[in-house]
Amino acid sequence: ALMTASQTEGETLSAATLHRALRTLDFALESVATQLGAVTLLAEIAPKMEQAGLREEWIPYLEIAVRLSRNQQDTDHAGEFELQIGTLYRMMTKFEQALQWLRTSHQDFVASDNRKGQIRVLNEIAWVEQLDNQFEAAKEHVEQALAMIDKSDELERAMSYRVQGAIADREQRWQEAENFHRSALMLFERNKDRR
Fold first, then answer.
1. 133, 153, 156, 183 — which has fewest CB within 10 A?
2. According to DSSP H, which parts of the chain are helical?
3. What letter does residue 153 receive in the DSSP assignment?
4. What is the per-residue DSSP string for 50-102?
């Protein structure tokens, strides 16, 4: 029922669904019989929980999901949950912790041969690095992401341009920063990515 509610509610969850999801996960993660279903639900709602503003209280659920995924040798799901944890730590400006989780996520996406996951996490690593004034490392990681992006994947290309624009901005290369940001915005708008 929660999977259906999550899929029909769109980009964000109602307060009632959010509360019900947390209570359901509390019970589902305790039982071996329901843990795999809980991991599936976690994968579905993780981005929506982050958008709902959950941070520290959401990380323990994701850590359990990482552990359960590893127990099942599911490096793809583990990588996804690690990416989510790294993103949350970045939002809390805990950059060192964020980078630890993101690097582990990258390793898991490589192990599962998940190219899209690798691109996403490379862009996130670069984003954290530019926030932490590690501009050369950020440039290297965003270039790695761009080299892997398929021409049809405009959203990830937009994310890379966003990172490059932020780096150029921080380095006071104003025109270049504006060009990258305008390119990113155009791709986001074309793909109706309001976020």
1. 133
2. 2-9, 15-28, 32-51, 59-71, 75-91, 95-111, 115-131, 135-148, 154-170, 174-190
3. -
4. HHTT--TTTHHHHHHHHHHHHHTT-HHHHHHHHHHHHHHHHHTT-HHHHHHHH
13 neighbors 6 (Cβ within 8 angstroms): yes
Alpha-carbon distance 187 to 2, whole Å? 32
Find the Cα–Cα–Cα–Cα dihedral 163, 108, 29, 39, rounded to 10°. Answer: 70
Q: Which two tokens stand for residue 37?
A: 């279903």
Name, in order, each residue with C-beta under 8 angstroms of 146's C-beta and a sequence gap of 6 or more. Answer: 157, 160
Structure tokens at 116: 């899209």
pLDDT for 24 equals 86
The tens digit of pLDDT for each residue in 84-143 reads: 999 999 999 999 999 999 999 999 999 999 999 999 999 999 999 999 999 999 999 999
Residue 195 tokens read as 């976020």
Q: Is residue 38 very low, low, confident or very high in pLDDT (cuts 50, 70, 90)?
A: confident
User: How many of the other CB atoms lie within 10 Å of CB of 136?
Assistant: 9
Neighbour tally for 125: CB within 10 Å: 28
